[in-house]
Specification:
It contains one helix and four strands. By secondary structure, it is α+β, with helices and mostly antiparallel strands. The chain has one domain (8-52). The protein has a four-stranded mixed sheet. β1 and β2 (21-28) form a beta hairpin. The longest helix is centred in the last third of the chain and has 10 residues, at 40-49.
Length: 64
């Protein structure tokens, strides 16, 4: 059974020079997404709900 591609995926999370802040590249299937500077609390929230790493060919993976 094929599963649909995720609506969002996390490309990267990088610690910034500001303690406790991170730059997250969170991609959306519907639009171009900028990177965001967020707190550890936001990172914890997002990583519980969004796939870390995008599947190959995302957002339009090849069909079998």
């Amino acid at each position: 059974m094929d599963t649909p591609p995720p609506d969002f995926c996390i490309v990267s999370i990088v610690e910034t020079t500001t303690p406790g802040m991170f730059e997250i590249d969170l991609q959306s299937r519907w639009r171009e997404s900028p990177t965001y500077i967020v707190s550890q609390k936001a990172i914890d929230y997002v990583t519980e709900r969004v796939q870390l790493g995008c599947p190959p060919g995302w957002p339009n993976p090849p069909s079998n």
